[in-house]
Amino acid sequence: MEESDFEEKYNEIRKMNSNLVVIGKTNIDNDKEDFDNEAEDDDADNGDESEGDDFEQETG
Hints:
By secondary structure, the chain is mainly α. Helices cover 80% and strands 0% of the residues.
């Protein structure tokens, strides 16, 4: 197969793939942000409560 034939086939495949419908999640980055926001909220809530406990454990 010559290089020009290869490029033609490659372009045909690229055109076919552009028409395909994507199934599944496409916004993975948004999901990561949601998890990060939840973790920050939990850390903020537990931070005040656990500071005293950590200090007592270190000295006791």
